Amino acid sequence: MDFSLVLASQAIETTIEYTGDGWQLRIPAASRLLAQQAIHAYRVENRRWPWRREVTTSGVLFDWSAVVWVILIGFFHWLSLQRPDFRSWGVMDAQLVSAGQWWRLFTAVWLHGDAAHLASNATLGLVLLGLALGRYGAGFGVLAAALAGVGGNVFSWLFFPGPHRSLGASGFVMGCLGLLAAQSLSHWRLRKPSWWARTNLSPQVARLVAGVFLFILLGLSPGTDVMAHLGGFLTGVALGWPMAFIPQPNRYGKLNLSAAFLFALLIILPWWLALKSAGSGSAL
Question: What is the CATH number of domain 61-280?
Answer without folding.
Answer: 1.20.1540.10
